[in-house]
Design goal:
The complex is a heterodimer of chains A (127) and B (326). With 127 residues, chain A is of the alpha+beta class. In chain A, 31% of the residues lie in helices and 20% in strands. Chain A has helices at 3-8, 39-48, 51-60, 81-93; strands spanning 24-32, 94-102, 109-113, 116-117. The longest helix of chain A is centred in the last third of the chain and has 13 residues, at 81-93. With 326 residues, chain B is of the alpha/beta class. Among the domains of chain B are: 2-135 and 286-319, Vaccinia Virus protein VP39 (Rossmann fold, 3-Layer(aba) Sandwich), CATH 3.40.50; 217-275, no CATH class. Chain B has helices at residues 2-5, 23-31, 62-67, 107-120, 172-179, 193-205, 225-235, 237-253, 256-275, 290-296; strands at residues 36-41, 53-59, 75-79, 92-98, 121-132, 145-151, 181-182, 213-214, 278-284, 301-309, 312-319. In chain B, strand 4 (92-98), helix 4 and strand 5 form a beta-alpha-beta unit. The chains are: A alpha+beta (127), B alpha/beta (326). At the A-B interface, helix 1, helix 2 and strand 4 of A face strand 2, helix 3 and strand 3 of B.
Chain lengths: 127, 326
Amino acid sequence: MKLLTHNFLSSRFLKNVTTGYPLKLTIEEKNVVEAEIDVNFLKNVMVKIDYAVLYEAAKSVGEDENLPSPNAIVDIDSLNEQQLKQLHRVLVCLDVVIGSLECPETGRIFPIRDGIPNLLVNEDEVS
Amino acid sequence: IYSRLASYVPPSKPGTLNTRLCPAAAAFIRSLPSSSLVVDIGCGETKYEPSSGFLLGVDPCSEILEKCAHHTDKCDVALADALDLPFRDSTADAVLLVSVLHHFASPSRRKAVLNEMQRVMSTGARALIVVWGWEQPNAAFPSQDVLVPWNLHEISINGRLPKIRFHKDSTKEQRIIQNSIPIAIRSEDRTSPSVWIDWIVSKVKNTPSPSLPSAAPHFFPNKKTQSLLTGIRRWSPSLGKKLSSLITPIEEVLADEMSGDIMRDAVNEAMATIREVVFYRYYHIFRRGEIESLISSIPSLRVVSENFDNGNWNVIVEKINANRVI
């Protein structure tokens, strides 16, 4: 599971959960797959993601160095090459192989195994 | 277990990956602006990864997700249900709902799938919906709600290819239609899946079929004997008992060599039975106009285009406002 995916995941389908976001990420094993940087894609995706959540997720794996500060609005055009590379790295190259996601409201744990988060729940858990 | 089945979109089992691309889906992906974020509901092995952008796939089957190439930088997958998409609201630039909606067994559940789909779409986002159509060019379905056999004996076991049972002159579509079992979903508010699954099981058992049908498409043997046996027990208690009686003495004697032989016999016996099993998948066959009226029941969705191609309805819809619809 990539941190880009984590940025969109929510447990709002659970019973009595209003936003279910962000899911608390715990990483036991990670992997990095190098890939070509696509600045246009970064631009489009930065509009959609919650950058503060991405920053926190990156920080939890010690990958926050060189990332733009979460306190200001991130303008892709003003970033230096190192910052762009790091942004690209945490969004799509970093893969969480083993870990877990925790619903911020109920504490429900969703395991991540073989890089795939399992968000299937029992019928009595949904609203 | 039964409660999951109604919403379970049965995947192609490992070893039978259907690599056939849906041309409408490929064209839809090509038509998207570059850098789009695409959500693929029932993604299977993620066949429609965009050349530029990112595809977020969800599927309820772990076996198929493990097969797919999610280790690229343009794709990621999660295990999730189409009725409970694990995403924030209004995030997707585009959605694929290809060969998914027809597996949901009541109008209210099909509507719930579309509602959940539009929730994750951003305003102006488009979705492609592909479903089976009633108006088949070569044959007629016996009912709008059918169980279609998914033939396990088409898998090669131990490298041996099974015999082809069908007459070579019949088309694939005709075979599918001839072998499907009509079922009647009697009332719209039959929302308890276990009730109708039980009913379907009884219906299927009463049809004159030489093979034993199963209502548990989730079950598939894997290398671990123990989980194979557990699966068999869940699926057929009597066969499970038979196998257990073979296992109990093993535990007592602890003769490793002998137990290996006995286990192999037991597994072979089980596999022989499995080979005869036909798994059934539920399909709802959409008549002309039916998918549009379902879409029009959701105020935030608008039909952009639709066409009928190779027995499928291909419909492109657009999300027209950001208000949440319950």
